[in-house]
């Protein structure tokens, strides 16, 4: 028996007040729909169908990497109507699991329990008891406590609205049953929609067992209808990630001010101070220290390295024992070897800085290769761009570049060379020598500073 998963994601998400389709709003850096997809994709051999509508092309393009079939629902006439669009694709013998694209934190574990609860001829329905059930459909039970149906909030009377057990919308059932019941839906209700939830009463009427099961945590069934709910789920998700990391031995100074939007691999005794945002794939060695206010994306940072406050690091590899910042910017292709230093207001792009070398203040290093044990003085600029093309600067080992130097690429500086402060280097500097370009200095005797223009006074 196969398993097909339908993810409903055609709704407009009006309450987000956004031009971006709701399915693409990000939670921990990933679209809401992708979270749901990932949980579904963990179920063995599941075929996944995504119903899209509003902004559908954009959603499909952004998520084209997902292994799913995309089905369009042209008009959003309700959740039952959305499911009906998929029916022709489904295998009659399959079990069908229905999920919502705006309920992102559902886990694969709960989903497999739900499929199990459906059994061979029944319905597995995920329900939750909430302190504040407003906005959700309510679960109706008969006097023996058996599920009798679902009533939407818009159609509920006062007594029904007081019910705290809610429909999460997620359910599992046999394809043949689903098809039969969906074909009987009508839209005679206050929203003029075909409610998928009406099939529960049909199942009960036919005597099919309806098993209501609870989720592992209420967060698993919380929907994102507006930005406040999105923020609430984001904080919960971040707290869970922070807790996992702390259990693994990472110090997180304040888990409420920690954001991981991707994957983090961390060695022993990593220290992470407040307001650190990690994106993409970040790999930290042992004893790495990330100080406050850093944004780090797609980076590898070696053992014992220290990232001082307020750096932006993107696509960089940082060697063991290196020190970066405060206020440094490492752009893609920056490679800092062991024990190197990149200090404040230094930008490094597509460049390698050799072992023990220092670029400590106010510099731009782009398309460069810097050897070992060099000192690059304050305000050094590699002039790598001629307005049309990029050129390389190659610096050997044990080089001293004086402050305020401009290296007009393509240019090479040999091993052991010294470049005098203020030099504009336009030709290669030979190894072991002092190279400098400087206009001769002069002083003007008897020169007077201009005074303030007296005509302007008054
Ligand atoms: C729905 C349920 C409600 C449940 C709640 C849980 C129905 C009738 N109601 O209400 O019982 O408590 O979810 O979160 O099912 N969608 C489509 N096509 C449509 C309409 C909706 O694909 O024509 C998709 C939406 O994109 C969304 C999901 O279905 O992902 C739910 O739609 P939404 O309008 O948010 O339903 P709720 O009012 O939240
Ligand atoms: Ca919803």
Give the distinct bound molecules.
uridine-diphosphate-N-acetylglucosamine, calcium ion
CATH homology-level superfamily of the largest domain: Spore Coat Polysaccharide Biosynthesis Protein SpsA, Chain A
Number of domains: 2
Number of helices: 8
CATH topology of the largest domain: Spore Coat Polysaccharide Biosynthesis Protein SpsA, Chain A
CATH architecture of the largest domain: Alpha-Beta Complex
Helix content: 10-25%
> Which outline best applies?
elongated
Radius of gyration: 31 Å
Largest sheet: number of strands, sense, barrel closure? 13 strands, parallel
Strand content: 25-35%
Structural class: alpha/beta
CATH class call of the largest domain:
Alpha Beta
Q: Which residues sit in consecutive blocks of at least 5 with pLDDT less than 50? A: none
CA distance, first residue to last residue: 96 Å
Walk me through what this model shows.
The strands form six sheets. Strands 13, 15, 17, 19, 20, 22, 23, 25, 26, 28, 29, 32 and 35 form a 13-stranded parallel β-sheet that branches. Strands 12-14-16-18-21-24-27-30-33-36-38 form an eleven-stranded parallel β-sheet, covered by helices on one side. Strand 2 and strand 3 form a beta hairpin. The protein is elongated, with a radius of gyration of 31 Å. The chain contains eight helices and 38 strands. It is α/β, with parallel strands linked by helices. It starts with a strand and ends in a 23-residue tail after the last strand. The mean pLDDT is 96. The protein has two domains: 219 residues, Spore Coat Polysaccharide Biosynthesis Protein SpsA, Chain A (Alpha-Beta Complex), CATH 3.90.550.10; 194 residues, UDP N-Acetylglucosamine Acyltransferase, domain 1 (3 Solenoid). The structure holds uridine-diphosphate-N-acetylglucosamine and calcium ion. The site of uridine-diphosphate-N-acetylglucosamine has 28 residues, from strand 1, helix 3 and strand 10.
């Amino acid at each position: 028996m196969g398993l097909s998963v339908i993810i409903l994601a055609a709704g407009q998400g009006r309450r987000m007040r956004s031009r971006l389709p709701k399915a693409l709003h990000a939670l921990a850096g990933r679209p809401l729909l992708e979270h749901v997809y990932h949980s579904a994709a963990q179920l063995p051999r599941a075929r996944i169908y995504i119903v899209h509508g509003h902004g559908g092309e954009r959603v499909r393009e952004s998520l084209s990497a997902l292994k799913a079939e995309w089905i369009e629902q042209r008009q959003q006439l309700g959740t039952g109507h959305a499911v009906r669009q998929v029916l022709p694709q489904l295998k009659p013998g399959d079990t069908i699991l229905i999920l919502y694209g705006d309920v992102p934190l559902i886990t694969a574990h709960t989903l497999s329990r739900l499929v199990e609860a459906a059994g061979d001829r029944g319905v597995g329905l995920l329900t939750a008891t909430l302190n504040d059930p407003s906005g959700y459909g309510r679960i109706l039970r008969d006097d023996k406590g058996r599920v009798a149906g679902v009533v939407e909030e818009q159609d509920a009377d006062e007594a029904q609205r007081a019910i705290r057990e809610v429909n999460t919308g997620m359910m599992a059932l046999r394809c043949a049953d689903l098809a039969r019941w969906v074909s009987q839906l009508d839209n005679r209700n206050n929203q003029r929609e075909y409610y998928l939830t009406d099939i529960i009463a049909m199942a009960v009427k036919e005597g099919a067992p309806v098993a209501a099961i609870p989720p592992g945590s209420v967060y698993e069934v919380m929907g994102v209808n507006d930005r406040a709910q999105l923020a609430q789920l984001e904080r919960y998700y971040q707290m869970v990630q922070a807790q996992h990391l702390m259990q693994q031995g990472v110090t997180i100074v304040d888990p409420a001010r920690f954001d991981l939007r991707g994957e983090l691999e961390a060695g022993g005794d990593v220290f992470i101070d407040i307001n650190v945002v990690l994106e993409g794939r970040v790999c930290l060695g042992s004893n790495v220290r990330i100080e406050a206010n850093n944004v780090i994306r797609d980076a590898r940072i070696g053992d014992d390295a220290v990232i001082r406050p307020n750096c932006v690091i993107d696509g960089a590899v940082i060697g063991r024992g290196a020190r970066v910042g405060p206020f440094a910017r490492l752009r893609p292709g920056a490679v800092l070897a062991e024990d190197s230093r990149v200090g404040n207001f230094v930008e490094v792009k597509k460049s390698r800085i050799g072992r023990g070398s220092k670029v400590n203040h106010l510099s731009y290093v782009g398309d460069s290769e810097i050897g070992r044990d060099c000192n690059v003085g304050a305000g050094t600029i590699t002039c790598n761009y001629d307005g049309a093309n990029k050129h390389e600067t190659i610096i050997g080992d044990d080089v001293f570049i004086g402050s305020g130097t401009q290296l007009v690429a393509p240019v090479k500086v040999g091993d052991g060379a010294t470049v005098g402060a203020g030099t504009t280097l336009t030709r290669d500097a030979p190894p072991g020598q002092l190279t400098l370009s400087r206009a001769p200095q002069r002083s003007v005797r008897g020169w007077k500073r201009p005074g303030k223009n007296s005509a302007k006074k008054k």
